[in-house]
Amino acid sequence: MSLAGVKQYLAAYGMADRVLELEASSATVHDAALALSTEEDRIAKTLSFLLDETPIIVVVSGHAKVDNHKFKETFHKKAKMIPFADVERITSHPVGGVCPFDLPDGIAVYLDRSLAKYETVFPACGSANSAIEMSIAELELTAHPTAWVDVTVTPAPTI
Fold this sequence. Notes:
two-stranded antiparallel sheet, 5 helices, six-stranded mixed β-sheet, 10 strands, alpha/beta, single chain, YbaK protein
């Protein structure tokens, strides 16, 4: 039902027909990049956290890693991911399909600056085999972010 809900949500923006339902899994950054024939860093990785009992979503670029110090400076709480078993109940999306669209009321969305270097990115669409390519402006329009944040670091590439 999550994919259908996201399509209905994106229909309000004229984007439902752009949702890609993939043959292969897109549940991880690596899998999504392979399935979409793009670089891993252009995958808009959606992370779900709890600030005390309040859930938030932070969307980051594929290679970015949450920096605990930056997270705590920004949110005044230690980074605590939503437990795996609770993700779908809290976000309405299954693990591997969590996205910044069609979320329950009260879940704030934040976009990390690591995304800003790309013209387009690929967030998931509510299932472990879906995505949509959208510009950063379209992501801002559809995700209704509370703010842009800087809570990540990008590891140096391995050689």
